[in-house]
């Protein structure tokens, strides 16, 4: 078994507990001979900046799969899903106090501060026919299209790179990484990952956060898989 690329989440996966970039994880990623794609629920410019700081080529999946780009010199590709998310947001705002995050930069979804009753919000959404869902990434609550996720984003980006999603090893920590694990060839959850991602992972590291990513890459190398 040999994999041709790695796709790795950012926050909680290649960061420290306080969200700083984990320098040993960065060093390990830089040493790899295969392409590395960053995948995040955050905005495209955040993903691109992180890719640049690490020293990668700029292939990123942002906004939970809604935005992708394969290189720094190319425009991002955005799904046309924001309008439905805005409708759901307006409806929820009638009953809950919600605060948008990065509203000027998000193109395909809405991110909210995690200071409201998510269970109540999801129950309210079920009374409507919006084609959206709410996902908690531990850093924000996302109102996103049910047709978009990191797995869909990986399949599209892999095609642009001349690869298949199965050619990738996926590394992550959160429920929004689950679809990415399912379409990739092998999924690794870091030790701080939530239960959903650990359940769909092929391997779970003992170490957490960036230390977990270092362990994950060393595991792959020891098996000769990358």
Automatic annotation (TrEMBL):
Q: Which UniProt keywords apply?
A: Carbohydrate metabolism, Hydrolase, Magnesium, Metal-binding
Q: What are the GO MF terms of this UniProt record?
A: phosphoglycolate phosphatase activity
Q: Does the keyword Transferase apply?
A: no
Required cofactor names:
Mg(2+)
What positions does the entry give for Mg(2+) binding? Answer: 9, 11, 173, 177
Q: Which Gene3D superfamilies match?
A: 3.90.1070.10, HAD superfamily/HAD-like
So where does substrate get bound? 150
- Source organism superkingdom: Archaea
Where does the record place the catalytic residues? 9 (nucleophile)
Leader peptide range in chain numbering: none
Q: What is its EC number?
A: 3.1.3.18
Catalytic reactions on record: 2-phosphoglycolate + H2O = glycolate + phosphate
Which HAMAP family does its entry note? GPH_hydrolase_arch
Which family, according to UniProt? Answer: Belongs to the archaeal SPP-like hydrolase family.
Q: What does this protein do?
A: Catalyzes the dephosphorylation of 2-phosphoglycolate.
Stored NCBIfam families: HAD-SF-IIB (TIGR01484), Pglycolate_arch (TIGR01487), PRK01158.1 (NF002245), SPP-subfamily (TIGR01482)
Stated name of the protein: Phosphoglycolate phosphatase
Instruction: Give the species.
Output: Methanosarcina baikalica
Write the lineage as a comma-separated list.
Archaea, Methanobacteriati, Methanobacteriota, Stenosarchaea group, Methanomicrobia
